[in-house]
Design a protein that fits this description.
This protein is mainly β and about 500 residues long. The chain has one domain: TonB-dependent receptor, beta-barrel domain (Maltoporin, Chain A, Beta Barrel), CATH 2.40.170. The chain has 2 helices and 24 strands. Strands 11, 12, 13, 14, 15, 16, 17, 18, 19, 20, 21, 22, 23 and 24 form a 14-stranded antiparallel β-sheet that branches. The protein starts with 9 loop residues before the first strand and ends in an 8-residue tail after the last strand.
């Protein structure tokens, strides 16, 4: 079991002994074991640190851990964000598939991904829409267009609520102005076990003051388990215009489409499952990892279709000792899920029917308008660097969340400030405060006894919370820090 501590990646710390040509016998200090050799001055080796992380890809600051995706990739190709996160202490990835899996679960400090925040370029993509899947679709987060990943452990950031486990902020790649119109292109392809093929093409460059970055990836596999195949693609387009006054206007779209088969029960000793010896054994009562889905069996449809699109428009303006960012964003996702499973047999008679008749097979489906979600909002942030040892950030954000069958479920408005004080080169203090106003519009129900349908209506529930944040960090070395953090956080109901 991993310890959840900030002393993350130091594997070995040792001091080498002094290396010297001096003799051990003080009475013969004028002699050497090799009289013909020149005597040398003693050499004291410096402290040596051996880190486990790939190619120096990780750096630590007083407030977060930053992972350089390109440096990480040099030690071995990775295609998904969770392939990197699984190497961090305190983060666990539980998969039901070797590849892209919307159903997989990522745990951070013991919390699942409904209780920590995942953001792209600062804006959250975790949406408590209640009627749809409130978890993150990890299958949509590929590394082809990602520059770095920032990880904040615990509810230490005033920029977010609903982040008991922490914050994972994904910073995307931007195009760069080049002296030539020829773009910088990369093409990669990998083939692995179980007929797994991954291909990716990226192109980035600039034309005058306009820069661009394009990304397309494709992945297909037969999968390890029976019926656990997948076939998916992802894409992203990012355009940025640099004004004469150094302001940057950015437009971006990031999306993915995936078809994934649900692994089937494959149990030679099972009552209901048939068995195919060409695939590994999967018990009839195997854990499906995610809630709200029963085990799948052969004989019917068992697959998921998943689509997601993230759209962003932002404007950033640097000043002499400060900077400003305004952002509007929208995330849309939809899914259709089919699984052939067991349900209770309402006609079962224990007096006359055999025990295996307690359950019968049933084809289930979830999707349609109940699984078409929309999450949109805006952010404003102003960072001030007027002081030598202080950085102050103030901001405001507003989010709306809904599904097509039940519009306007949530509205969240929040303002915040966060101050970082570098007291000494090794000691820093972060203080912040967030105020959030949450309005929930419930599903329709009646105030009358018996909940009669004729008098049902949607109720408004409002909540106001103040969330203070504080973190004291001491950098013991370049790669090692220890901290004390005391924070208050709010978990949005229904998430």
């Amino acid at each position: 079991m991993k310890k959840i501590v900030p002393l993350l990646l130091v594997v070995c710390l040792f001091r080498a002994p002094a290396v010297s040509a001096e003799p051990e016998d003080p009475d013969h200090s004028d002699q050497t074991a090799c009289p013909e050799c020149d005597q040398t001055e003693p050499v004291q080796l410096e402290d040596m640190f051996v880190t486990a992380f790939h190619g120096g890809a990780m750096t630590m600051t007083p407030t977060k851990t930053v992972i350089d995706v390109e440096k990480f990739n040099k030690s071995g190709s990775v295609d998904r964000v969770e392939d990197i996160l699984m190497h961090l202490t305190g983060i666990d990835v539980m998969r039901g598939s070797l590849g892209a899996d919307p159903q997989q679960m990522v745990m951070m400090r013991g919390f699942d991904d409904s209780r920590f925040t995942i953001a792209i370029d600062g804006r959250t993509i975790t949406a408590p829409t209640a009627g749809a899947d409130t978890y993150v679709d990890w299958s949509s987060l590929t590394t082809g267009d990602i520059e770095k990943i920032e990880v904040i452990r615990g509810a230490a950031s005033a920029q977010y609520e609903n982040s008991q486990g922490g914050v994972i902020n994904i910073i995307t790649k931007k195009g760069q102005i080049r002296e030539t119109l020829v773009p910088r292109m990369t093409v990669s392809a990998d083939y692995a076990s179980y007929n797994t093929f991954t291909g990716r093409v990226t192109a980035g460059g600039g034309i005058g003051d306009l820069t661009y970055f394009l990304n397309y990836g494709y992945k297909v596999s037969d999968g390890y388990l029976r019926n656990n195949c997948y076939d998916g693609e992802d894409y992203s387009v990012r355009l940025a215009y640099i004004f004469a006054f150094d302001g940057i206007l950015t437009l971006s779209v990031k999306g993915s489409d995936l078809k994934m088969g649900y692994a089937l029960a494959n149990d030679p000793g099972g009552i209901y499952a048939d068995y195919d010896p060409d695939y590994p054994v999967v018990p009839e009562d195997a854990d499906t990892i995610r809630r709200y889905r029963d085990m799948s069996f052969a004989g019917g449809d068992n697959y998921k279709l998943k689509r997601s699109v993230h759209k962003d428009v932002s404007f950033e303006q640097p000043f002499k000792q400060s900077s400003m960012k305004i952002q509007y964003y929208e995330t849309m996702g939809e899914e259709d899920s089919y699984y052939y499973t067991l349900v209770k047999n309402s006609r079962y008679d224990p007096a006359t029917d055999p025990p295996e008749a307690q359950y019968v097979f049933n084809q289930k489906y979830s999707g349609g308008n109940d699984r078409k979600e929309r999450h949109y909002g805006g952010r404003f942030e102003y960072q001030m660097d007027f002081w030598d040892k202080n950085t102050l950030v103030v901001g405001y954000d507003q989010r709306h969340m809904e599904v097509k069958s039940t519009p306007d479920i949530w509205r969240i408005q929040a303002g915040y400030f966060e101050d970082t004080w570098q007291a000494t080169p090794k000691l820093s203090l972060v203080l912040g405060l967030r105020y959030a106003h949450i309005r929930e519009k419930t599903y329709a129900y009646s105030d009358e006894p018996g909940n009669p349908r004729s008098s049902r209506y949607r109720h408004d529930i409002t909540t106001d919370v103040w969330l203070p944040k504080s973190t004291l960090t001491y950098m013991m070395s370049e790669n090692t820090s220890t901290f004390v953090s005391v924070n208050k956080d709010y978990h949005v109901p229904g998430c």
